[in-house]
Design a protein that fits this description.
By secondary structure, the chain is an alpha+beta fold. About 60% of the residues lie in helices and about 20% in strands. The longest helix has about 35 residues.
Length: about 375
């Protein structure tokens, strides 16, 4: 018959552990209800607490168990192993709780600054900072949690001591091997703080036009206008020039170029533009004009400038102005559109006097 005296401390400790877990779950339930209701007027704190719910449901019982194991006598059999086995998931759950708090805080900050408006420069700035800094903090928290779990093993501490003894050589090797990782990490911090690019910025990179869809810890996802994705390393934005159409604001000045015959009267075109642009909802009411900006040996170039609240509206506005002006010229001045005519083996520009000149040359 086994000696029950050696198990009696474990019986009392096990009962205490069960009661501690129950108390922790009850405290979690009550605390979650009270805190979530109390923090509703504070959206950022409320979002942080909501993100921490699942992790906290695991951390509190593990913490209660660890307190019970620590309070138990050191002379109990296997108590050190139990403490160690409980400590590992406690560290992992605490790391999860920290990561959840970081992501919840970022989500709350972003939610307080909605960017579903035309001029959302400040909201995009805050979104970029929150996401990039949250990802960086998440990586740091994850590495810290893994390091703490590893250092709970005595063998790992001895390995750490031996590595410190050769820190010079290991540091050089690790620095060379981890250079791309650290360079992208530093580039991410620079982008988050200096913000040469932000979420939803309109960029031209390597000849491609697109919007910044995502900024991760190592790369940027640029959504191209035709739904392709261009993956660009963060370091590229630090070392190479690129165009940012929305750096200081989302308002843009769009241009439309028209090539017409020299005989085309400009005044009617300006009058038509004056009538047309105010009727277009994409125009933001700031500015528009029409000027002759260039000439060739056969045509003159007219430039129409129009302003819009965002790059998407500017593109649509340019297309509508271009189509309307071409339609006006086709209806009112079809004889002044730039065409080519081949007469008598020679190519001549069609326009006022073009046919007579061709007749003279043929005669």
């Amino acid at each position: 018959m086994p000696d029950l005296s050696q198990f009696s401390p474990w019986v009392a400790t096990a009962i205490g552990a069960v009661l501690a877990v129950i108390a922790a779950l009850v405290a979690y339930r009550i605390g979650a209800l009270v805190l979530l209701r109390a923090t509703q007027p504070a959206p950022v704190l409320h979002a942080t607490l909501r993100a921490c719910q699942r992790a906290a449901r695991l951390v509190l019982p593990l913490l209660a168990l660890q307190l019970v194991w620590q309070a138990a006598g050191n002379d109990m059999r296997l108590i050190e192993s139990v403490r160690h086995l409980n400590g590992l998931p406690l560290i992992a759950a605490t790391t999860w709780l920290g990561i959840s708090a970081i992501n919840g805080l970022a989500t709350g900050v972003i939610a307080r600054h909605p960017h579903a408006v035309d001029d959302h420069l400040q909201a995009r700035r805050i979104m970029t900072q929150a996401r990039v800094l949250a990802r960086t903090a998440t990586v740091v928290a994850l590495f810290a949690g893994m390091a703490m779990m590893r250092m709970t093993f005595p063998g790992a501490r001895q390995v750490g001591a031996s590595l410190l003894a050769s820190a010079g050589v290991v540091g050089i090797v690790a620095g060379i091997a981890a250079r791309p990782v650290f360079s992208n990490l530093i580039a991410g911090l620079r982008i988050a703080l200096a913000q040469p690019i932000r979420i939803d910025d309109v960029l031209i990179v390597q000849g491609e036009w697109g919007r910044v869809e995502e900024i991760t810890g190592t790369y940027v996802v640029l959504k191209i206008w035709d739904d392709r994705r261009l993956i660009i390393p963060l370091q590229c934005f630090v070392e190479n020039p690129f165009q940012n159409w929305t750096r200081t604001g989302s308002q843009l000045l769009g241009s439309v170029f028209l090539s017409v015959d020299f005989a085309m009267p400009i005044a009617p075109l300006r009058a038509e533009l004056d009538r047309l642009v105010p009727t277009l909802p994409e125009w933001d009411g700031r500015f528009f004009n029409l000027q002759a900006t260039d000439t060739t040996e056969r045509t003159m170039q007219l430039r129409v400038l129009v302003t819009a609240q965002s790059s998407g509206k500017a593109f649509d506005l340019r297309c509508q102005v271009r189509e309307a002006m071409i339609g006006f010229m086709q209806r009112e001045y079809p004889q002044h559109q730039p065409t080519l005519r081949v007469l008598g083996g020679q190519t001549l520009a069609d326009g006022p006097g073009g046919a007579a000149e061709a007749g003279l040359k043929r005669g």
